[in-house]
Amino acid sequence: MKGVxxxxxxxxxxxxxxxxxxxxxxxxxxxxxxxxxxxxVDPDTMQGFRTWRAAACDRCHGPxxxxxxxxxxxxxxxxxxxxxxxxxxxxxxxxxxxxxxxENPRVSEHIDQLYAYLKGRSDGxxxxxxxxxxxx
Amino acid sequence: MKLSLKQQIVAACACVCSGAALADAALxxxxxxxxxxxxxxxxxxxxxxxxxxxxxxxxxxxxxxxWTFSTGxxxxxxxxxxxIGDMMYIHTPxxxxxxxxxxxxxxxxxxxEPKQDSSVVAQMCCDTVYRGLAFGDDKIFLQRADxxxxxxxxxxxxxxxxxxxxxxxxxxxxxxxxHVFGDKVITGVSGGEWGVRGHLxxxxxxxxxxxxxxxxxxxxxxxxxxxxxxxxxxxxxxxPVGKDSSLKTWKGxxxxxxxxxxxxxxxxxxxxxxxxxxxxxPSTWNPSQRPGDNKWSMTIMARDLNTGIAKWVYQMTxxxxxxxxxxxxxxxxxxxxxxxxxxxxxxFDRNGFxxxxxxxxxxxxxxxxxxxxxxxxxxVDMKTGRPQVVAQYSTAQNGPDVNxxxxxxAALGTKDQQPAAFHPKTGLFYVPTNHVCMDYExxxxxxxxxxxxxxxxxxxxxxxxxxGGMGNFIAWDAGTGKIAWSKPERFSVWSGxxxxxxxxxxxxxxxxxxxxxxxxxxxxxxxxxxPSGIIGNVFTYLHGGKQYVGVYSGIGGWAGIGMAAGLxxxxxxxxxxxxxxxxxxxxxxxxSLTVFAVPE
Lengths: 136, 600
What we know:
Chain A is of the alpha+beta class.
């Protein structure tokens, strides 16, 4: 569980930063998500939240991503890489009950935003499931 | 061949109007023997009452485990086995395995493991539950999760016929038990959260040939509604539903993805030749997106077994705003209603009201709350038959993206599918209930075929300002609409009750206890902790002259999920102690059957 420990530490560091937090996506240098006050997020992350709701992920993963019949995503995204996350969502894990969302344009077209939102939740930077779009 | 509805009725009458439906001799014979448990409710009336009387209030405390059987499958185990003579038929949740067990030797005589695409698991809304098998014509009927209905030879397990009842790729999956009534086997579909258009479908027992299909929404001909003869409670009396009674209550063609699925327990009155069942929620859960009453979702239906044509209908929750599916069982009993002996239909709805109807005519007789915390409506107006919605709890009036708080009951209802039982001696109903409230936030969704079409986020929690538990086991007087007694439970009671002529009532709990309570006052006589939480239904049978009582254990279903849903209302969902975590202190997954008897 080494990875979890390091990521938790990172989350702690992120969450104490004020007033706004932006976590960089290392490949592009662009912020993966930006969050203020724990719940005001940039438009892309907001879209990620809408995607989460539209695809009804909460039915298995819990309204706060804490896990129900499906695993906790707060924990899961501390372990899964962005690529692994995308593969899992788009192809599914049918034997475990995870549907494939590759055929669902609402999900496939917003997979990066969905990742940003859930990563922000998992990092602890986004402190509640329901987010709002930050004012410009 | 296209026939108008009138022509269809004429054609149907040409064959059948001379008499009632042909009964299936094998099932009829099996049901007459009280030693059998030949149907999921023991009978066609959904009474869940057994005339066996060896286990009594006096000796129930001596009950001991007689034998056990592991199903080899995890996840939620709903329904119960069937017993016909020396054979017991056991089912499992997905992958829907079937075992035929010889009760003399406990040998597995045959086993059937259907091959199903595992992608169906992801399409199932509330765990991979399956509510059980049906027996008739020396066949065992298996309703697979992927919507295929199969007839197995009861002696060998060989597949005799197989028919596809819905397309799982579009979300039409199945969790319901099929039911054998007369010469037909009747089944339904799930998928109200996938925009599936619900229907009840009857197949010929012998061949699997389609007899009729009645949709819950849409044009009269496809719903098997007769605008002039299908009656509904209107303005204090029964009146014909009129033309396009469903179409008029939907915006555009939303009825095509309108839900009204049919995954509950059906019942049948042979004398009236009517089949009774309820329809589920309209899709989506966001009410603002589907203006209108959304008929005939949330409806009690009475249909002719031979033709499928609706004799009467009654919509309990017009324009649902809370996911109060109307699928719960319809119990048929002849009881005293406000001083008049009545052929009644009694239904404990998810919406928290218990309805007593005249099952012959469809007249609304009683509609009262069976949990005092129910708050979304003040009462049901007995003239219009409509619930009087409280604005504060109206998720439609509050609108999308507004979190409506403190609605009682929660979406899983004051009762879900877990069936109640009737006892003819007291004339009362014994009802396993949930005592759970919710916050409900609808939001805009788009329909994509084969994808979830939900449109609301829910948080559920024990009813506030009450005993702190999430369930009650109650005795209900359906003639007056009053609770006779109520026994609080720590968790939702998600197990079907059984009443017996020994004046003992049985039910299971989510912690995994099977309990025997006294008929008169609900006093606990005995309990036993089974291997896992109980969401199955208690059943009884006689073998070798001895009475046995059994139940599946195996936690899961929406009970398990519902417990988790939103109990953690804090910001990050970590650390809070909610009901589900509480439940984890008592039980873990695992499917088994435990059978009890009083030792010599």
